[in-house]
Design brief:
The structure is a homodimer of 428-residue chains. In chain A, 31% of the residues lie in helices and 24% in strands.
Chain lengths: 428, 428
Amino acid sequence: MSNIKKVVVVGGGFGGVAVAKQLSGCQTIEVLLLDKRNHHLFQPLLYQVATAALSPSDIAYPLRSIFSKSPNVRVVMGDVVDIDRSNRTIILEDGGRFGYDYLVIAVGARHSYYGNPEWEENATGLKTLNDALRIREKILVSLEKAERAETPEEISKYLTFVVVGGGPTGVEMAGAIAEITKKTMVEDFRKIDPKDTRVILIEGGPRLLMQYPPELSVKAKCDLENMGVTVLTEKIVTDVKSDRLFLGKDLKEEIVTANIVWAAGNEASSLMTKLNVELTRSKHVKVRPDFSLPDDDDVFCIGDCAFLTDAKGVVVPGIAPAAIQAGKYVSKLIKSRIKTGKNTHPPFIYFDKGSMATIGRAKAIAVVGPIKLSGIIAWLAWSLIHVLYLIDFRSRFAVMFSWIWSFFTHHRAGRLIIYVRRRSLDKK
Amino acid sequence: MSNIKKVVVVGGGFGGVAVAKQLSGCQTIEVLLLDKRNHHLFQPLLYQVATAALSPSDIAYPLRSIFSKSPNVRVVMGDVVDIDRSNRTIILEDGGRFGYDYLVIAVGARHSYYGNPEWEENATGLKTLNDALRIREKILVSLEKAERAETPEEISKYLTFVVVGGGPTGVEMAGAIAEITKKTMVEDFRKIDPKDTRVILIEGGPRLLMQYPPELSVKAKCDLENMGVTVLTEKIVTDVKSDRLFLGKDLKEEIVTANIVWAAGNEASSLMTKLNVELTRSKHVKVRPDFSLPDDDDVFCIGDCAFLTDAKGVVVPGIAPAAIQAGKYVSKLIKSRIKTGKNTHPPFIYFDKGSMATIGRAKAIAVVGPIKLSGIIAWLAWSLIHVLYLIDFRSRFAVMFSWIWSFFTHHRAGRLIIYVRRRSLDKK
């Protein structure tokens, strides 16, 4: 029994699942995969749940099912709150403790509220299914309230939707909200006209989608404006209240709105602070070129809670393909170390497969190496790739069916107000 | 404008939707359809959401979408808390008021806790999507907790599932819980064996499915027992705590369990008490043979909040087909009264299309006139009829696909723990 090594993986996102999958079937390794939730989430499509296009079960899959045929992988639902590296033990919120030989931390990141965590109450982020369902409910309830509202001010408050953050998530959310209000629901109301909805996308930097080439930013802005979205750049949010938000240093500008979606900033999980290692400003762990901690060969951080400039000088981005590559790399490294006992391994090199963001029906942008795409071709590529990467046959099929159906009918199946309770990802 | 008559319909269930559909397009009638929720729910399949087989969007459909092409039907999401008959006005929780010429109340019923409303906290009923998601979460969380539990007592507490009430809902729930634990999830755990799950179905009367012929009750009991369900009859629940329930007069017997589903009793909405008319013990309004209140020609109660023995001496049951028939009857009556001014109308006669209940995979029972069916034939009939009655093409297709997929794979797509907040249907 003593030659069985215990690998504990914290986080069932793209990185954590990749590690556990690679180690599945290894006779000398016992894997324990921990997550706060019971499911793996296909986060790139989360905004589609938030905007009622897809159901939660289309983009989430129970972790247990992923590993039901992997007897050496044990899945436990639990919230890791501390790491005792001197005793090689992780500690759960409910007091549970698990020992490890190797530890892989892949807990991801959360939006950051620029040091104002209280803003979250009125400006929901978009990282979990719970977040997505709460945003969806807010959108739907606001339209209902607008229909019942008495004054033009009140109607305007409910029909104004503000998305903060002009990265891919913000662009996708703004486009999808414009579609749902201005197209999908246009025949549904008698008093209000959903076409009157204002959708405002706010970006602090000089342009949308800063990580893309400038011409694609222009294209995205143009597409959004054609869909009726107001794009504001170089505007910093300085305060958030339940019925409005403020812009600019002296709270000069305000936007009255009942609907704020937060898609700005990025901050690694607060678990990172328990490691007692150097962190970036956004709490990402500065890992060594093999993802290990600077002072610990047996503890690794991968995915969107690690900061690494790879051997070619590229900063590894906090996106799904990078997390998967890191997961595969680290599992290979662990296997080789267990087999050979040696700790020499070529450093990680990130392979950029390209990136893409969707804006709306038949509108997207994509960069693959030197190639820049936009419009319907980018959108078709985006749709195909996202369906292919979905985890099981059933979801692939269900999502494809939902998309084809919505494309032709403009309908969305998920427009249900169910009352989801708030569950913050990062309570500590 | 004065010849336009206002018909207010409270409740977007089978009865209310039937009324609004029949009156859609009538030039002399303006319909206002009110519901606490924004969706029509296909309640007969709700237990499948509770047991993770279907997603909420498969069995619910926004009311607004149903009537988007009916300009004379206005849908408002609101909670009716009082009815001022002398002023022909309904009053909403938020203070909103709407006048009516004709009022149709179709708010349905809720499970009854035999005068112990505090039991609901630990014994969720199954009437809304919110209920279903809470039950689903409880089942999934209990299995997770069992996997982490330390003592046999604790494991047994989490792996014991009690369903109270041996009517169709109770039978369906017990069967589905047995399937999900003993089949679907059998490979997913490492420490516990989901086959060890105890599923106990408790009925106060002498047999299950009292409204069906005795031989079908025997068949259902036999099928359930073959699936591993323990069926207890003539047992009355006398107390419910968070971790156990008591049976019998002197709290003699107790069952330690973290999972209680309540599918017993039936009580009309408390709104009925605001009408100041005679109610049955279960708060159903004793209506006249045309569903009007005894003292009010212009106010009707239909569906599972009304009590009526029809002209042939049959008690109209509280099920979907009866509510739809009542809705059609009442809308016809209102149209004819508006047209002719006369208030003579043949009394309602219920047409019994038969009834059916499903027990599990390829197991169901059905009664159609003198014909009694069971086994796979009844189950196929049940599946076909439920799919046909689902409201739109998309849901029909999605449900059929989910069922066929689950039938062959034993998988269930909805096994996600999302954290749904409790929202009681009847708070007042």
